[in-house]
Amino acid sequence: MIYNNLNMIVAIGNNNEIGRKNELLCHLPNDLKWFKKVTMGATVLMGENTYQSLPHKPLSGRKNIVLAANEMQRYAACYMAHSIDEALRLIEKEEKVFVMGGASVYRQFFPMISTLYLTRIHADFPDADAFFPNFDVSEWNLQEEIKCKADEKHPYDYTFCVYKRKNI
Question: DSSP character for 145?
């Protein structure tokens, strides 16, 4: 089932890399600004490792939902879900929800999302240990594309893309 309020936001390398050692692939200040702009005021849904990796917890200006296997686990100012079904119940009345990682959470929710906010980092990251699921871009309509060049603050070229799932 596709949920119209369910979106995904991710930055990936050329080979669908998303991270290494529970950290981002690289520092792209404009990607962080875009993430904040796109998700502000919405609900963000993440796995426990992603939550642990955040420099500032919880993300301010957003409702934070953390998916954790341990039913006793609690994080201050966060809503907790301990299964996919529980997470779906928590978001059913939310206007806009962004799944923001990690790899396992992306994989489980990808079939349900209606919109994908994707930053393509035009580089290879051979030491990556976390990956975004492969997907067929022909099943998506490209709604927006902003190409950006590397500069003194951004070590790689990158492109912001917004895809809407076809046939929903």
Answer: E
